[in-house]
Amino acid sequence: MGRQPVDFSAWLTERVEHVENVLEQLLPSDTTLPSHLHEAMRYAVLGGGKRVRAALVYAAGEASLQSGTAASAQQIALDHAAAAVELIHAYSLIHDDLPCMDDDSLRRGRPTVHVKFDEATAMLAGDALQPLAFELLGLMPIAPALTVQATQLLARSAGSLGMVGGQAIDCDSVGHALTIEQLQQMHSMKTGALLEASVLLGGIVAGAGSATRKGLESYAAAVGLAFQVVDDILDVTSDTATLGKTAGKDAAENKPTYVSIMGLDGSRDLLASLRDQAHAALLPLGPTAARLAGIADYIVGRDR
Ligand code: GRG
Q1: Helix, strand or coil for residue 200?
Q2: Residues 280-299: pLDDT tens digits?
Q3: Domain extents for the chain?
Q4: For 8-301, CATH number?
Q5: Which residues are paired to 107 by β-bridges?
Q6: Global pTM?
Q7: Do residues 2 and 14 lie in contact, with contact meaning Cβ atoms separated by under 8 Å?
Q8: CA–centroid distance, residue 280 to ligand 1 (Å)
Q9: Whole-angstrom distance, CA of residue 26 vs CA of residue 68
């Protein structure tokens, strides 16, 4: 992973393919017992997904490297960190789609895991992806102190003070009016925490100093929120075929969203200001942060 002078979309395509291969190799094979469980884990993780979180890990790594080019140990560590966040994300999607949560039958344009397999297998596949993510962090060939920081960060972002806590607030809020502050709190935990952790993991693995970490944190907060604002807009403006998941669910379930609270125009204005915030946060990092800037634009402009 050097500073290839390729444009952003070529870089992103290459990184998405790369992490797909990494995941393919790091997941247990579907011939390993219990093969049904491993088949479900592979089905959930492989063959779909924008891989935004993995791209954030790699881009933040690139922005943080001292020499500009990752040594091979750092490349392996970035691969493991990128795979780990995608595994946690895949587990969250499996569980979110279960009948006891969102009860959805379509994800990434395919039947959800409990529909393709069964509910117990889907639950166990999600359960098994979590420890695998932490095992991958434990295998990073970097200074143990950095591995400890990375592990603590991922655990905190995924747990009750992060993603799972946000999901709990979301479950409790259906049918209730939320203020914009409450909505923001819920999303910063449910979706923002793992996106932010992805950025910081890339920085930690690449040995970012405190000034760089500060810039990454501020960038990550803006991008994490922007991701959710786009998600709310797309739920209203896009369709099921394009999204690969059921469109229009938020309104159908009377869920509070940015669009329901601020309207479409207000949500788009917020999005534009979050993109400006993300770009401004990267200024002190200089040209090595170009990929992160590209991801901010990609997230704001995405159509699925
Ligand atoms: C069930 C523990 C537990 C947590 C679920 C993140 C989450 C918490 C649920 C996902 C529900 C959802 C649709 C949230 C909106 C934002 C979001 C995370 C969308 C899906 O992420 P993408 O668009 O998905 O990055 P791909 O398929 O591209 O990886």
Answers
A1: helix
A2: 999 999 999 999 999 999 99
A3: 8-301
A4: 1.10.600.10
A5: 110
A6: 0.94
A7: no
A8: 27
A9: 27
